[in-house]
Each structure stands twice: as structure tokens, then as C-alpha cells.
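Aim 2, interim progress. The first record below pairs a target sequence with its C-alpha cells.
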Amino acid sequence: MSSQTQSMSDFLDDLWSNLDNSPAKPQATNADAHAAQQQANSAPAPVHQNSQPYNAPPVQHAAPRQPVPQQQPVHDPRFVEPAAQPMQQQPIQQPAAPRVAPPQTATQQATPPPARQHRQRLFYPKAPRSLKDAGISVDMVGRLSLKLLAARGAVTGRKISAHIRLGFPMVESVLNTLRKEQLVALKGDAIAGDYSYVITQKGLALAKDLARECTYFGAAPVTLPQYLAAMELQSVADQVIRSADLKHAFSDLLLEEDLLKVLGPAINSGRGMFLFGEPGNGKTSIAERISKSFGTTMWIPRALGIDGQIIRIYDPAIHEVAPPSATVGEPDDPTEIDHRWVKIQRPTVIAGGELTMSELEVCEDDNTHICEAPLQLKSNGGVLLIDDFGRQRMPVDELLNRWIVPLEKRYDLLNLPSGKKVQVPFDQLVIFSTNLEPKDLVDDAFLRRIPYKVQVPNPTPLQFHALFQIMCKKIGIAYNQDAVDHLIKNHYTKPGRGLKACHPRDLLLQVRNYCLYEDIELTLTRESMDFAVACYFSVLS
């Protein structure tokens, strides 16, 4: 006990001497030291059972006083404040910008972030880790593999995996099952852990039977529930088009501001519109650029599997594969993406006078028995343009009756070759382009389901001059205002001919061909204009 008391006394003496020499506590007194000694002696038993823990108090008391500026950052972690500030600023600045800043410049700065968040919704098809996650059976993978081997001969396992767009571990397990059933065999030694597979006679006989049912052996199909979920996340109805988006999409066309103000709300409605007006004013060009105003890409399945039937959706003639880019929210590692899907630009499907009823239903090829998706299914997420509406081979009433319900309900019922009906999204902006008055083509019931009727007028003389200036630069002919004034006065105003947006391009091509033939300089003169008009309008009004 005496040794413990002596240790306590030495400790207090050292503490007292440190306090006397410290400039931070010049006001320490004997009364303070006496109070500290009484407090330390009041509970000696629990503290002095171990001498080492007791040496901690001077370290804990001395350290905060000496390196105070060094220890403050330790008690205020650096990652706390930066994380808290953005979360306080984002909900305050972003929602307030559209409400407080009505001018156009402020709106353009504030609206793009919410538009992008609303559009993309961070969707991408995640790579499945098993056949169950992919929603595909072992039998379907085996069918595709056998038909591939029957057509290609010896193929490595990884090439089979890449061809049917499934992960190698999943395909390898199915190939091992086919080996046990003696439908395939190994050829040669393994290279980098991968074998070459060949089909056996037994497997070849089975593959021929499978090919009679359907010759398809491309990418493994996506299930209908997976497709429905993806289309819901990428719905065209969720696309919010701003004036800046529309001006960017139509930057290469010369359109009036009033026309853009009507097109914008019509696109945001997502329900369809009529584009009507005289021919040659760019109705088709306008419809083709509407999908660009969405400004985003989307994912579609290469093939859709419904009750054992495979329907091809991806069409290289219609869909444009999007270039690889670092899209926000998508992984950089390609192995994390389900390659049964393909990333495309939002589609623009055009159907003209050749449209028939068969193109609006699932069509099965008589020889291959592969089903092709209808046009409205291929255009989901984009634009479906019915060009020259009223001049289709099928009666107008038949087309209207086919789509009168999908236009209102936004879903379609497809008849499969097996006789089953399935419900699929009717999720696109349908545009009817016509040279006729809409009221002369359809009845009031159908007009009610197409809420926007947009007229594309003839260009004004000022716009006509501007079109000549644009096309002269593209063709390489020097612009001459006097020649264009001569054209408008003598070949449009006098005969009562209407100005058309396509005429500057067509007439300038005539002038260029005339100058090249005569071996003269490419210039725009009254004489060359008269020659172009004589050729172009010889049988036109």
C-alpha cells in the first residue's frame, strides 16, 4: 500500500511541475493540486489494480492541450461535410430553378438535368448469372447449340457462348449434358480450358428434327415479362421534350418558330399526331427527326420468346446500333451486360403506300418457321411514321380499326401462329403524314384519338431565299439574290404556283447539271434558272 501511495505522490509531483512550466495554465494554485490529490485518493482500489492503465490519464490530458490544431480534423471527418453539402444543395437548387427562373436562358440551364434523369432511369440489362436468372431453359440452350453445331461443324465452347449471347459457364454446363447424352463430342485437346465440340450422328438427327420446327439458332430469346419490364422503364411516354431539345433535333431544317411550338407539345403527348400539308414541304423529314429530339438510346432484345416460339425484334434494316459510349449508370465491364439485348438509337420506322395488314401481325416464314415482329413492335420506344396516309394498299378503315384501341389503351394484342393472343406494349409516337385533309380521311372517333393535327405550311419568300442560301453552300454554287428574285416573280407569282421547301434543292441540282454539261462556271443566273424551271415544271402545275 505504501508503494502505491509513493507512486501516487510521485505522479502528482510530476503533474504539478508540468503545470507550473506550461504557459497554457499559469493560474493553477495549490488548492487545485490538493483537490486533484483528494479526488485521486478517493477511489484507489479500482484504479490501482493495474499500474499500466493508470499511466493513461496524463497522456489523455496532455495530448488535447498540446496538439490541439492537429487533432481537430481527426474529430471532424473530412468525408462528412462534403457529403452533407451536396445533399442539401441539390434538392434546393434543382427543383427551384424551373420555378424561379422562367426566362429561356435559365430554363435551358435548369431543365436538362431533370430531363436526363427522367429519360434514362438508369436502365441496362444486367447479365444473368444462371439460366434461371435468364429465364431460359436447358432445353432451349441445347436446341440452339445443336442447330449451330449442325450448321457450322466444329465450334469451341466460347464461340457457342458468344453466338447465343449467354455466359460461358451456363453454356458449358449444357454442353456437358449434351455430351452425357452422346449428342455432341469433343474434338482435339483443350486450348485455354476450352474444347471444340462436334455434333454426333445421334445429335445430327435430332438437330434436323428441330430445324423442321424452327431453323433459328441465333441469340437466346428474352422472356416476355423481361421485355415488358424493360419497355416500361424506357417508355416513350416518359420522354419530356424541351424547346432546346427540339431545336437541336431540327437544327438542319428551316422551320418557323410557331411550327416548333406546336410540335413540342404534340411529341410530349406521346399519343400520335397528323402531319398534313402540300407535298414537298418536309413532312417526312420532320417525322424522321422527331425521334432524335428524344436524345437517348434504348435497349431492345434481339429475339423474344413466347411459349416456345421465337420472335425476332432486332432488324438491322430498321434499327441503328448505338456507338459504344460511357452512358451514365451503365457498367464499364461488358461482362455485366446481358448481350441478348442490343443498344440502339431510338427507332424511326417508316411505312409508306406498301403497308399491308400482314405487316401489322406476327409473321411466320413458311420455310424457316421464324417469326418476325410486326412494325409497331419494332418501333416501340421510338416513332412509327405512316407516310402518304390514305394511299396504302390496305383500306384506310381497315388500318384505323386495327389501331383504334391500341392508340387509346397503349397496348396491342398480337396473334401468334399457335393461335394464342399476347398483350404487348404499343409504346411509340405514331405519326400520320398525308397530303390530304385529316377530316376527309377518317371519322370523328379516330380524330379524337389523334389529339394533335399539325399543318406544315408552304415557305414564305424570305424562307425561300434562306433555303437557296443553305442549298447553294451544300451544292457548291454561289448564291445570287437577283436570280432567285427573278425565279419567284416570273415562275411562282405570275403563274400562281406555290413555293415548296423542296424546290430550291431540286432546281439547284438542275442548274448544276446544266453548268457541268455546258462546261461553264457553277453560277446561279437568270438563264440557268429559266432552264431549270423549264425542265422541272414541264408537266407540273
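The second target in this work package is listed in the same format:
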Amino acid sequence: MATNRLWRKWLVYVSLAGLLEGGAACRRVAPRHAGSLPWAESAAPYLPPAGETQMENGLWGECPPERKFDGTTDRVVIAELKGPAVITMIHFALPAAGKLDRSTLLRIYWDGEASPSVEAPLVDFFADPDGALERVDSALVNKKRGWNCYFPMPFARSARVELVSQDPRYPGNASKNPCYSYVMAQKMDALPAGAQYFHAHWRQQALLLGKEEYRVFEADGPGQFVGWNMTVRGVGAPGAGYPVDENVNFHLDGETTPSIVWMGLEDGFGFSWGFPGEANGFPYTGFQPWHKGAAAYRFCVADRITFCKQMRMTVGFGPNETWFHQIYSQPKSELELSSVAYWYQAEPHTPWEAMPAADIRRPTNLPAPAATEAARRRAQEHVKAGEALALDCGSPAGDVAYLKDGWDFTLRGGYSYARFPGEVKHCWADAKELKIELRCPKGAGGLLRLYLLDADNFMGGRKESVRVAGREIATCEHFQQGRWIEVPIAAADTAEGRLPIAIRNLNPAANAVVSYIRFVEGGPPQSAE
């Protein structure tokens, strides 16, 4: 088995090694050594002398401050490498929170370019759409308690790998982003003339596929397409299914009619008569059920698709599929597709459209988790108490206990902790300062309530100051039994639709904490919980 895995890895690298041949004389055929055996000449660029390996770590506590998220920045450069070299592996560990969605972007820049050559939600780049899959098995990307990539990525002068955290509730929050990363690379003497660079781009669109095709990507060449991952699901009506009768079209070098067509969506991923009923993960193709739709990947290594000047990849029904065009042109028949395309091309590349905001990148119309009877009762209690916002800070059950329409929050500094002794075990904490912003209707007035608890008498007892809407409210210590801080809020405090809260640690050996946040609209103080 180990020999088979090693042989498979050699075949991947040798096949992709042909990309380094580049060449101004573009041919729409595979490069000379594309399908050759492991010891082929074209593998040589990926076998530099031993001892010339580079590695850069990021995000972990031992890394320099500028390589970590700390709530004060939403962008972190996790690796900056000098070329000529080839990135051979990229690894990300699971966040402390245990999950990650599309809020965090992966961007990679080659040779000082202004526009990234790789831009995608980190999880989707690894064929893990919206972070919803437990496991992904393929030869080039995989996931199980971490994400790993094995695409060879050559560069001549420099490579910059960065993450951008755009979660509207937890921007730049360390516990909500990968807790560790590393990038491996091997130095080279030089890249061959015309070497092609790795690119990847994510898109998502809900559309009437009977009226228009879904556009996966467009690129100006020369280049070579090496794979993609995709999701499809019906979003026009509750419980809608999805068809697999779409074609995957490759328009090469300005073609109006595609010269390469995978007929049948599932056939393009190596299946037939629909996707199978269970997950299947192979080295180059795979499928998993995903939100009553499909998630699939296909890597084209020995069968990559070359283009000289331009490529346009689309998904749509064939010209003779009249019935599907009619059905999927009707209202409430919308399909939502998302995709990451992977390809190599000569630089410079054409910049892409701006990436949508994080909340727009989420899958559309996902059903809300079914509320338990206990959860419904608790929500009714918050409504009865006149609360527009109720946060159980750091609770394993979730930070949000109740949010009225128009209310939300952002945790700009701090992390979750849920191991206090006693009945209330959870809090948000920060060694320096907790920075919280409540988002609310403009001019909302009422009573802000903060519950502070030093249940473990940490480092001889916590001491912290509370500041709300720019006003110093209180300095608190000796709150081992818990203490409510109540702050009247006037319309002027929320005139901009937000209410900033800062809780600063005053014991250098301890940290600042808060366990509950409540906002009572226009009401009198409520009894302690």
C-alpha cells in the first residue's frame, strides 16, 4: 500500500511537472512528458538537491505577532518566500472552535503582483465547501482535522500566502480561524522560460440555468486547466432537488461552440446515472452529499486541458435539452452552484471581480436548525423580559441565546472559554481587552446588562474596567460570586447603529471576562439570572 501511494504521488508530480516547460509556442496538446513515468526528464525541476527546503510557520502561539490573528487585524500573511522555488505543500490546522466556514479567504500572490492568483474561501479551496465536510480524500487536497494541499506552485521571485478573516461576528478572531499553518517549498536555480503559475478562483451564483449558463472561470493564456470542485443544489423552493443533466463546457481560444464537453454533470466527475447515494473519494474524482445537493471534485492531471490564448468554462444544459431549458427557466426553479477552478497559466493574469462579502458567500436558504422545545422556551423568556439581544458568551451551545431582528454583535477581541467551576462555566476572555460591538437599530435605547464572573479566582482574582459608548462605567474586582453591571443607554449612544463595549484587564497576571450580555429595550433593570 505504501508503495502504491508513493507511486501515485510520483505520477501526480511528474504529470504536473510539464507545466514548467511553458513555452511561447503554445500547443493545444499535452506537454512532451505529460504522461511519462516517474523518472522522466520533466520531473527534474521538482527534484532540487537535498537540503534546499524552505518552510514557514504561521498562526500558532510561538509565531511572531504579525503572523497571528489577535482580533486587531483581519489579514495575516502566513508565509513570504523568496524564489525561484516551488511550493510543495500547504497545511492548515482546525480552529480552536473546531469548525470553519467561508468567512476566511485564502489568497496567494506571485512575484509581487497586485492581484492574487489564488482567491477562494479557505475551506472551498480544499474541496470542503463551506467547511461542511468531515473528510475529503484526493491526491491533491484533503481534509481530516486539518486541510492539506499538494499542488506544486512554482514562482520566480516571491510568493506571499495570506488569510483574510471576514466573519461579521468574529473578524480576525484567533479561535475562529485555523490555529496553525505551514508552507513547504523547495528552492530552484531558476524557472524554465515561460513557466506557468498556479491559479485558483471561487465563484457562487444562484440562477435559472435554463436561461443562462453558470460561469466557472475565464482565463487568458497560455495555460492548462487541472481541475475543479463544485456544489449544486436547488434553492428556488423548499425541498427542491437538482438535475445532473447539465454539460460542462470548455471554450478554448475564443470558440463560440465548446470543443470539449463533459455531457452529464455526474459523468464529468466519473459517475453515471446520477451521483451515488453514498460518499465516494478517489484520488482524482469524488462526491459527497451536501445540503440536499451534491459536492464533487475532479482533478485533471494526465488529462489536463490546454489553451493557447483563452479558456472559458461553463455549466449549462445542452442545446437539445429543451425540457430542461423550459423547467429550469421557471420561477422557483433556481439552482445554486459554487466552484473552485484550478489551472496554471503564464502571468500576468486578468484580475477577477471583487469577492462577495462573507454573508453573501454562505449557501443560500439553508434550513435553520430545528429548535428544541427548551430552546423555544428560553427564546420566549427573553422576549417576555423585553430583551432585544441575549448573548451567552463562550457557551458551548453557542454565543447567541436570542437576537431580535436588526440586532447582532461583533467580537473584535477575545476568545471563548467554557471550563469555569460552578453552574456558569463560560465566558469571553482576553489577556488585554475584550472589544465587543453590539449592532442595533439606530437610536435604540434601553438598558445594557453585563454579567461578570471570576469563578476560578484566577491568579488571585481578576480586576477589570468597563467602558460603554466611550464612557467609563465601572472598575470591578472581587466578583467571584458574579456581578451584574447595568448601564442605561440613550438614543444618542446608538445613533450610528452600534454600541461599543470595552472590558480592560487590570491584573497583568489574569484576564478580562464577561459571561452574559443582555440588552433590554426601554425597560427597567431585570432581576439577576
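The radius of gyration is 26 Å. This observation will shape the mutagenesis plan for the next reporting period.
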